[in-house]
Amino acid sequence: MGRSVWGCWQGVFSTAVLYGSLALFTSILHNVFLLYYVETFVSVYKIDKVSFWVGETVFLIWNSLNDPLFGWLSDRAFLSSPQTGSQITNPEVVLKRLKALSTNGPLFALSFLAFWVAWARPGLQFLLCLCLYDGFLTMVDLHHSALLADLAVSATDRTRLNFHCSVFSALGSFSVFLSYSFWDKEDFYSFRFFCVTLATFSILGFFVVSRLLQHRFQKEVRTRQDEALTLKELSVGHAPLTQPEKPVTIGQYIKQLSRHRNFMWFVSMNLVQVFHCHFNNNFFPLFLEHLLSDNISASTGSILLGISYIAPHLNNLYFLTLCQRYGVYQVIRWLFMLKLGLSVVMALAGADHIYLLCIFIASNRVFTEGTCKLLKLVISDLVDEDFVVNRRQQAASALLFGMVALLTKPGQTFAPLIGTWLLCVYTGYDIFEREPVKDSLVSVPDIASGSGTPPLRLGCFYMLVFVPITCALLQLAAWSRFTLHGRKLQGIKTLRQGAQHGHLIDVKAI
């Protein structure tokens, strides 16, 4: 009876829908976490400043190291060259990742709940909650991202998988809007109930969807195992005298990556992208306050904020259709050029065109976040190239995603540091001391607009337009050196499919 129920549900949903729905169960929690965890500990639990910064510092270190650590623990068995008689099939890899998601997904939801109930001293609870939450989030994100490279090889199938992720991530963003109805730091009961409801939904979702996907691939694994047993009995497909190769060490793997030119150029571009995304997140409220608050209503400001959360997911649906037609490389290149063009137009127009400023502030964040959401497709292509060039036994998807995160996450730290430094240099405004610094670069009215523009407003405008211009120029320079596109990419995919012939998943259901 139980198997027939699972089989019935399996027939209703495609692999792409089930894979995409996993993004929903993550995003409904993570968006709420990002919005409220700092205010909860500062305003509700009254954490002291030293404990807060100690917690954030430890979290920064842990956040950078856990991606490659978990990726290595997950994929180290796949790094050696193919060993005769010990092939790991793709369905087995997928099942391994699904089992990890079925375990870590519910634990991620439980770690989310640990923020909203005071169970220890604020400083200790802040540190433990951040590290636990980020650890389980990393495990979920790594395995979910790695499945994109393991479930499909063709660009069309991967785009379809990413398309469904964007749809469900957009649905998950609505938890932010619902949270406003429950948030009250004076009476925390309603918000706690709301978080428990979200976590319960997420736990059930991870359990049910991962089980559905596991049942879908277990049959194929059994078939492959029966075939392998038959071949073994016939002494076909293995050579007993072949010397098995030694597994690749972490040092050897890093050396291989350092020689992977496309990986290095991609990381260079992505480091700037991560910086720009977090720069927009960190200074979006500041730009609204000092550039628009005197000219737009509070409701218009909240609409702009809402658009900046949901529009990137919806916009990505259109970008993915363009990717199917023109390729991911070309679409990302166009987005960099669009960022550069819009920023130059805004710089020439000046800070006094309010409606143009509203459009630019919103579109700048939307297009930047949209670009970030396409980069998983590029990393999946790098997984294919790494598999072919280094003759892997199996694609080390989670490990490569983890190494990308390790090398690009410093952009999260650079964004507020460089942003506050630029603000202080241009305007003399120190967000920590709130007092002007004498030797600021901008201390005169805006001559171009002919109005007495306050230095702080003008400094914010310069940051708003010149940071995207600088980022776009650096990214276009790095992206022009990236060669994994067009015929070369197609050749890599053909080689991977040929090398894993008989071991890849039948993706017709995707």
UniProtKB/TrEMBL annotation:
Q: What Gene3D superfamilies does the record point to?
A: MFS general substrate transporter like domains
Is Membrane there in the keyword field? yes
Membrane topology type: Multi-pass membrane protein
Alphabetical list of InterPro entries matching this protein:
MFS_trans_sf, TMEM180
| UniProtKB keywords | Membrane, Transmembrane, Transmembrane helix
Q: Name one GO cellular component term.
A: membrane
Compartments where found: Membrane
The transmembrane residues are 12-38, 161-183, 189-209, 263-284, 296-319, 340-362, 461-479
Keyword Membrane assigned to the entry: answer is yes
Record protein name field: Major facilitator superfamily domain containing 13A
Species = Seriola lalandi dorsalis
